[in-house]
Amino acid sequence: MPVLPAPAAPTHDIGGARFTSLATPTSGSTDTSVWLVEIDAGTPATPHEITREEVFVVLAGRAAVRIGGRDQEAAVGDAIVVPAGVPFALAAAGDEPLRALCCLPVGGQARTPGGEPFTPPWAV
Fold this sequence. Notes:
Distance between the termini: 17 Å
Oligomer: single chain
Number of strands: 11
Structural class: mainly beta
Shape: globular
Number of helices: 0
Helix content: under 10%
Largest sheet: 6 strands, antiparallel
Strand content: 35-45%
């Protein structure tokens, strides 16, 4: 696999959260999609579940995590493992923005409550 240069700016901005695609099928990754997520303090979490296990590593700030109805916090260096099919939400905890690296197997999809499964555009 070649070295994939990081984009100069986030590739997706959804107001209060930015996603930077780093390794995806469109850039040559075949098994794992990787992106950087930055969530501003005060941005509400978007509850959802995923069809494949997803892993986040906190790079800066703190994460407020809800997995399966259980609330926890994650600090720099902590890994957050989100099982497939379990309700999940992620937000910045405190006054600092959250910055985390995320990995999801190619083909993994997200689903918001009552919605249809979709592939996040930053994972394509």
